[in-house]
Specification:
mainly alpha; single chain
């Protein structure tokens, strides 16, 4: 369980995320106005902001346009839907 700010002693969940997914999510969150994302509860917007904050701690924040495009292609490959 993580004990640092802002989560304190709040239970946390650890999971692994494919690097390409992290790059795609980070790029999308950085370019999205969270005030325009359809939500049904304010906690959803906060959860997206929290996800962005966690992604900002990773080494993906300096991804180039070429790396972002490659990550998008990798994630979209074989989607089937």
């Amino acid at each position: 369980m993580e004990t640092g700010f802002p989560w304190g002693s709040t239970p946390t969940v650890d999971f692994r995320l494919w690097r390409a997914d992290a790059i795609v999510l980070f790029d999308w969150l950085m370019s999205t106005d969270l005030n325009t994302v359809p939500i049904t509860h304010p906690a959803q917007k906060q959860a997206l902001a929290d996800l962005l904050a966690r992604l900002e701690e990773e080494d993906i924040v300096e991804s180039t346009g070429k790396e972002i495009a490659a990550a998008q292609a990798e994630v979209a490959k074989n989607m089937g839907w």
